C-alpha cells in the first residue's frame, strides 16, 4: 500500500544495500511510501545524491503536518 505523499519507494533489491551504506536510509521506512514527496518537489529526483534525498525524506517524516502534505501536493 502507498500513500499519496511520502518518501518515494525504492526497488526491493536496493533497500538492503542502501540500508547498509547510506546513513539513516532505514529511517525513511517509518511511514508508507508515497507517489510524491518532499525531496521530489524540492528538486531531488533522478540522478541526485541518495544521501540528500534521505535527508529530505527524514525531514518530511519528522516535521509532518497536513499543511506540509498540502504544500507538497500543490508543488507536484
TrEMBL record:
Q: Which UniProt keywords apply?
A: Transferase
Name one molecular function that GO assigns to this entry: phosphotransferase activity, for other substituted phosphate groups
Q: Establish whether keyword Transferase is in the entry.
A: yes
Q: Which Pfam families match?
A: Bac_transf
Transferase is among the record's keywords: yes
Signal peptide positions (record): none
Task: Please report the stretch or stretches of sequence annotated as the Bacterial sugar transferase domain.
Answer: 1-76
For this chain, the family text in UniProt reads: Belongs to the bacterial sugar transferase family.
Q: What is this protein called?
A: Sugar transferase
User: Source species, please?
Assistant: Escherichia marmotae
Amino acid at each position: 500500500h502507498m500513500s499519496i505523499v511520502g518518501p518515494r519507494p525504492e526497488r526491493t533489491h536496493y533497500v538492503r544495500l542502501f540500508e547498509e551504506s547510506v546513513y539513516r536510509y532505514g529511517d525513511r521506512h517509518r511511514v508508507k511510501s508515497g507517489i510524491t514527496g518532499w525531496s521530489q518537489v524540492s528538486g531531488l529526483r533522478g540522478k541526485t545524491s541518495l544521501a540528500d534525498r534521505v535527508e529530505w525524506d527524514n525531514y518530511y517524516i519528522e516535521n509532518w503536518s497536513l499543511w506540509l502534505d498540502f504544500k507538497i501536493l500543490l508543488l507536484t
